[in-house]
Amino acid sequence: MPVLNRIAEFAPDLAEWRRHLHRHPETRFDCHQTAAFITERLLDFGVDALHTGIAESGIVAIIEGQGAGPTIGLRADIDALPVTEETGLPHASVVAGKMHACGHDGHTTMLLGAARYLAETRNFAGRVALIFQPAEEWGGGAGVMVEEGVMERFDIAQIYALHNAPGLPAGRFETRPGPLMAAVDTLTVTVTGRGGHGAHPEDTADPVAAIVAMVGALQTIVSRNRKGTDALVLSVTQIHTGSADNIIPETGWFCATVRTYDKAVQAMVEERCSAIVNGIAQAMGVRAEINFERGYPATINHEAETAFALSVAQEVSGDAGECAPVMGAEDFAFMLERRPGAYLFLGQGESAGLHHPRYDFNDAIAPVGASFFARLVEQALPRG
């Protein structure tokens, strides 16, 4: 896989940084030790400005090019997952119950590699904003950084990010213009009835029967309320109620995950969930409390920026192309709502899947991702 020669030279450093990060995972917004490690590296590289404490532990570093020009934003997520590692590797997590099971240690390393190269060479006009973001897995750190004004504060004109992809050939880039990843919403319904003895259901208002009816009826939203061409997933994932085999409980609750691409479909699902749940509750003499929580929006790549990013990826790896949309979610969507840009997948070869306790990032692809970020800047912001 052809990469920039200078980045290839410090590939051993990339592996060392990545494995240090892997050994010391932090979750959500509490990524302060990770931020301190990143800050130390960036200061060693000689970035021109360093802004810390954004979204609690996020960082934005600025590298000035040679001559006037716009600002390109490059983002890496830095948080880990609440997963107990089972790899048995020498660099396995030393923090109980936490590990980098999604490769954010690798994403951070690739952006650090690009930062080192760009700070050394400055073979571009304008400037680069390097965004190291916490709480991608839980908390929507990208949205928090956006709300804290990073796009305006640093005058970011375009924004790009990468995510590793197990099962995709190592070094291959894939993405697509338009919808790439889905919006994710959570439906939670609490049902309250009147409990009693299981031998005398006629004296109760049974929340279990109501929940069963609601779960079944909600599936008709996918089968009967959407167009065949509209992407939609509604999966009930938890049902909790009852304490004994002969007691009809007073209450119960269930929740579901909802995945969509289109805001109109998203709104339709919310309206139909309310109508179905309330209708069944009224018919069965129980009370329902509904919470439809909007989560990450759909990740929508911008057409021109996606075509440009794929051309850079093809130059760097010789293997880049379009992929089908997926129903997973990604909080980089908040940044793409504010600025044009693109999100790409970078193959890491065969490995355990994302969020699996035996997952480990493939260090061989770190120079590829770092070279992609560096060449993207040099091509987007040519000198002269």
Task: Please name the defining characteristics of this protein.
384 residues, alpha/beta, Aminopeptidase, Alpha-Beta Plaits, 2 domains, 8-stranded mixed sheet, 4-stranded antiparallel sheet, 16 strands
Q: What's the layout of helices and strands?
A:
Elements: H1 5-9, H2 11-23, H3 32-45, E1 49-54, E2 58-64, E3 71-77, H4 104-121, E4 127-133, H5 141-147, H6 150-153, E5 156-165, E6 173-175, E7 178-181, E8 183-192, E9 196-197, H7 207-224, E10 232-241, E11 247-248, E12 251-260, H8 263-284, E13 287-294, E14 299-301, H9 303-317, E15 320-322, H10 333-338, E16 341-347, H11 366-380
Parallel strand pairs: 3-4, 3-5, 5-16, 6-15
Antiparallel strand pairs: 1-2, 2-4, 6-16, 7-14, 8-12, 8-13, 9-11, 10-12
Shape: elongated
Catalogue the unreliable spans: none
What's the pLDDT, averaged over the residues? 97
Radius of gyration: 24 Å
What structural class should be given to the helix and strand makeup? alpha/beta
